[in-house]
From TrEMBL:
Family that this chain belongs to: Belongs to the short-chain dehydrogenases/reductases (SDR) family.
Highest taxon of source: Bacteria
GO molecular-function term, one example from the UniProt record: oxidoreductase activity
SUPFAM superfamilies (UniProt xref): NAD(P)-binding Rossmann-fold domains (SSF51735)
Assigned keywords, A-Z: Oxidoreductase
Signal peptide start-end: none
Organism taxonomic ancestry: Bacteria, Bacillati, Actinomycetota, Actinomycetes, Micrococcales
InterPro entries: NAD(P)-bd_dom_sf, Sc_DH/Rdtase_CS, SDR_fam
PROSITE patterns noted in UniProt: ADH_SHORT
One Pfam family cited in the UniProt record for this chain: adh_short
Protein name: SDR family oxidoreductase
Length: 268
């Protein structure tokens, strides 16, 4: 899908990848609604780039409906939805049910709820595009965070299911799976309240490869949308890691165990 003149919604867009996506979309000629739970930062970002802002929880059915309604009111029917909002922490087995529910809601069910509201209309129109921001953790794992790893696997699985189920109906799907990107989540999200697990989770990302600028990632996502490419891996070595995992999962797990031991030694 070419994004010029298309109507796009981007969640988690107060900063980081979401703000970069919105800015890139606007520069490419799209009309954009941005959303984030941080109303103050969202408003500042929307004013700076020239987007329509709808503050709220991206996992809420009501907020998703409000985003879609704002897009229709200002521009017309939504053509592309970027399910980009995410949460991360350093929680392992000690994660509470509330922590699990938050991760499930934002990292996975927000995608399901948005697709539920948009896909039937796209099927009728014969076109539409859904972009899921998952993570390399959804293809591999996230050392230090059970909640992040599991829910990002779910996001990848749901994006695959959407692509398989609705590809013949004219609906495109891309799934973004980066490693380290210079965002608030990487700088503080994983470590906030996560203790050693959070520090290990952050170190696992930053030491595994280059930390990319959000705009570099956004440009790759829009290129993937233009080409109809499903899997977007800005860090090229993620695909090699995935091949190794598939080829010999036991060997891959042993290697990850060694890497975890190294990381724990580094953060202590």
């Amino acid at each position: 899908m070419q994004v010029k003149d298309k109507v796009a919604v981007v969640t988690g867009a107060a900063g980081g990848i979401g703000a970069a996506l919105a800015e890139a979309l606007l520069e490419a000629g799209a009309r954009v609604v941005v959303s984030d739970i941080d109303e103050q930062r969202l408003t500042a970002t929307a004013d700076r780039i020239g987007a329509v802002a709808v503050a709220g929880d991206a996992s809420s059915e009501e907020c998703i409906a409000a985003m879609i309604a704002a897009a229709e009111e200002h521009f017309g029917p939504v053509d592309i939805f970027f399910a980009n909002a995410g949460v991360g922490d350093g929680a392992g087995l000690a994660a509470t049910d509330d922590q699990w529910q938050l991760a499930l809601d934002v990292n996975l069910l927000a995608h399901v709820r948005a697709a539920r509201q948009l896909v039937p209309g796209w099927v009728q129109r014969g076109s539409g595009y859904f972009v899921s921001t998952a993570s390399a953790a959804g293809l591999l794992t996230q050392i230090g965070s059970a909640t992040y790893s599991v829910t990002k696997h779910g996001a990848v699985g749901f994006a695959e299911w959407l692509a398989v189920t609705y590809g013949d109906d004219g609906i495109g799907v891309s799934c973004l799976c980066p490693m380290g990107v210079d965002t608030d989540m990487l700088r503080s999200g994983m470590t906030s309240g996560g203790g050693e697990g959070g520090k290990v989770a952050a170190a696992a990302v930053t030491q595994a490869g280059e930390v990319l600028a959000p705009r570099d990632v956004a440009d790759q996502v829009l290129a993937a949308v233009a080409e109809g490419t499903f899997l977007v891996t800005p860090h090229t070595h993620v695909r090699e890691f995935l091949r190794r995992k598939v080829d010999d999962q036991d060997r891959w797990i042993h290697g990850m165990q060694r890497y975890q031991r190294q990381l724990k030694g580094d953060v202590r």
